[in-house]
């Protein structure tokens, strides 16, 4: 998971065993024809809660599900929301649309597999597993039946590990046109702080044959997301900046060189011709929100704040949602919430959507 700072990463890794605890038995939520945001919030050292809203951050349906521990992430694939319990839970759950009364599927990914992301492609569920299993395996993409959870094989990626820890640390998974793209963070997990190798990798896996068909070297510690549109591309946030991957043509290109100014890139997402990213300077507890045009390379600054940006994700309507938490290096509480930005104009879209606790993740239902 390796989300900076190291302390936050360590706390997230110490997730608690999963306990399903519906908090609201009302079932009057309906599928929003324009799409719906699924929201996860909670303290790092506490428990997590699931809520939903429309794509403008209104029409909030809160307290839908309570989760033990905070080491959970959301995903949306095959029309449904999914929850992954990471380190210490090692499980996958599927829910029927925005109804979180009970999962329609739940299965273990093996201990301690530490699942990171998933995608449904060619009728199969692909789950990246960062950890090495006690009984062998791991550092792979495991394949399951998305309806029953039956195991359908694995794609071993341990041969791409950076050193002696045996794992290439598979992380984000992006599905497109019969192919999944998987980011390999290539971290030295045997060190006190999980340090990335100078070279990260992205692999392309054919969903039908379950074989690696292409790969690209990237900057260290790659985090992938889809750059939707025509032509399709991948946005890759690394510890050194932003890169793009054109799988069918030019390959890897630098979009923003983060080494010039220093600082950490804590989140990035793209829509249309623009990407939004957050650049963070830990020693000053200062974060800048910026937008970059992929056709010209021009960078515009939207704002600065003292909160800590955990991640960014693009919504189906083209907006980019950002996850802002209390900064870990400031004595006072900072503002927290889900923010929305228009990438084309590099402007904020309304006030932050806030809950009693801090946001952890967001996913979008079609």
Overview of this structure, please?
2% of the residues lie in helices and 51% in strands. The chain has 366 residues and is mainly β. The strands form eight sheets. The protein has a five-stranded antiparallel β-sheet, with no helix packed on it. Strands 5-6-7-8 form a four-stranded antiparallel β-sheet, with no helix packed on it. The longest helix is centred in the N-terminal third of the chain and has 8 residues, at 6-13. The protein is globular. The relative contact order is 0.13. The model is unreliable at 1-31 (pLDDT under 50).
Summary, kept brief:
This protein has 366 residues and is an all-beta fold. It contains 1 helix and 31 strands.
The proportion of residues in beta strands is over 45%
Main β-sheet, spatial strand arrangement: 1-4-3-2-31
What are the segments in which pLDDT stays under 50 over at least 5 consecutive residues? 1-31
Provide mean pLDDT, rounded.
Answer: 89
Oligomer: single chain
The helix/strand class is mainly beta
Q: Please provide the count of β strands.
A: 31
Instruction: Report, as a whole number of angstroms, the end-to-end distance.
Output: 26 Å
Descriptive labels:
four-stranded antiparallel beta sheet; globular; 366 residues; mainly beta
């Amino acid at each position: 998971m390796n989300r900076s700072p190291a302390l936050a990463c360590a706390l997230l890794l110490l997730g608690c065993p999963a306990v399903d605890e519906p908090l609201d038995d009302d079932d009057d939520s309906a599928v929003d024809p324009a799409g719906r945001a699924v929201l996860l919030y909670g303290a790092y050292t506490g428990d997590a809660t699931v809520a939903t809203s429309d794509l403008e951050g209104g029409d909030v349906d809160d307290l839908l599900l309570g989760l033990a521990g905070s080491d959970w992430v959301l995903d949306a694939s095959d029309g449904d929301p999914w929850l992954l319990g990471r380190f210490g839970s090692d499980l996958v759950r599927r829910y029927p649309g925005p109804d979180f009364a009970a999962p329609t599927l739940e299965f273990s990914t093996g201990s301690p597999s530490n699942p990171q992301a998933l995608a449904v492609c060619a009728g199969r569920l692909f789950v990246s597993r960062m950890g090495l299993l006690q009984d062998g395996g791991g550092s792979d993409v495991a394949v399951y039946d998305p309806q029953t959870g039956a195991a359908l094989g694995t794609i071993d990626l341990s041969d791409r590990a950076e050193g002696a820890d045996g794992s290439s640390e598979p992380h984000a998974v992006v599905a497109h046109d019969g192919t999944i793209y998987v980011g390999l963070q290539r971290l030295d997990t045997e060190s006190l702080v999980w340090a990335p190798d100078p070279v990260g990798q992205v692999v392309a896996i054919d969903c039908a044959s379950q074989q690696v068909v292409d790969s690209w070297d990237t900057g260290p510690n790659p985090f992938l997301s889809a750059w939707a549109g025509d032509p399709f591309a991948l946005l890759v946030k690394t510890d050194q900046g932003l890169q793009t991957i054109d799988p069918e043509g030019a390959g890897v290109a630098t979009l923003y060189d983060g080494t010039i100014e220093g600082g950490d890139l804590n989140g990035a997402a793209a829509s249309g011709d623009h990407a939004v990213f957050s650049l963070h300077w830990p020693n000053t507890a200062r974060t800048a929100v910026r937008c970059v045009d992929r056709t010209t390379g021009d960078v515009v600054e939207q704002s600065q704040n003292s909160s800590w940006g955990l991640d960014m994700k693009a919504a189906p309507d083209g907006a980019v949602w950002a996850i802002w938490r209390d900064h870990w290096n400031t004595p006072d509480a900072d503002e927290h919430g889900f923010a929305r930005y228009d990438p084309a104009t590099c402007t904020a879209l309304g006030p932050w959507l806030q809950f009693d606790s801090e946001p952890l993740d967001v996913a979008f239902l079609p």
